[in-house]
């Protein structure tokens, strides 16, 4: 991986070579100096192109991370809650309850996969609408 320091050093090197070559009068020495300057500029160009590539990769990575963060922020509205029967669900926090967002629970298993799945409350269980996970909230009453 090329660093910015390397690219700057390559440009500086080319500059120093060009500067020391400007007073050369001997044709052979001048040709050699020009060739060295061109080599140094070529190195600088390669280093800069590699930096540009890294820059684009970082922009992509940054975009992906931001998208991932905003997906995960949705889950900040929920808290883990244990049901009376020892099951676990994620309950919408009171401060996020609005007319458009009534109290509800979501699935902790789906959350781990980045999915927000509502768990409707059945007679004895909260059951995930997307996976097999369920959490018992009331002991079933068996006929005696
Ligand atoms: Zn689920």
Produce the secondary structure layout:
Elements: H1 4-21, H2 27-73, E1 78-82, E2 88-92, E3 105-106, H3 108-112, E4 125-127, E5 134-136
Antiparallel strand pairs: 1-2, 2-3, 4-5
Helix pairs in contact: 1-2
Bound molecules: zinc ion.
Residues 107, 109-110, 117, 128, 130-131, 133 line the site of zinc ion (ZN).
Descriptive account of the structure:
The protein has 144 residues and is an alpha+beta fold. It has 2 domains: 68 residues; 54 residues, no CATH class. 49% of the residues lie in helices and 12% in strands. It is built from 3 helices and 5 strands, in the order ααβββαββ. The strands form 2 sheets. The chain has a 3-stranded antiparallel beta sheet. α1 packs antiparallel against α2. The chain is rod-shaped, with a radius of gyration of 32 Å. The structure holds zinc ion. Zinc ion (ZN) binds next to α3.
């Amino acid at each position: 991986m090329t660093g910015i320091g390397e690219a700057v050093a390559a440009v500086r090197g080319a500059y120093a070579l060009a500067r020391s070559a400007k007073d050369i009068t001997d044709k052979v020495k001048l040709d050699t100096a020009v060739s060295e300057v061109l080599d140094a500029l070529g190195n600088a160009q390669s280093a800069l192109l590699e930096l540009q590539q890294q820059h684009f990769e970082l922009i992509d990575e940054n975009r992906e991370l931001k998208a991932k963060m905003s997906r995960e922020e949705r889950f900040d509205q929920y808290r883990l809650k244990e049901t009376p029967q020892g099951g676990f669900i994620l309950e919408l926090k009171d401060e996020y309850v609005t007319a458009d967002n009534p109290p509800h629970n979501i699935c902790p298993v789906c959350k781990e996969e980045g999915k927000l799945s509502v768990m409707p409350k059945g007679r004895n269980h909260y059951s995930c609408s997307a996976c097999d996970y369920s959490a018992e909230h009331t002991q079933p009453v068996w006929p005696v």
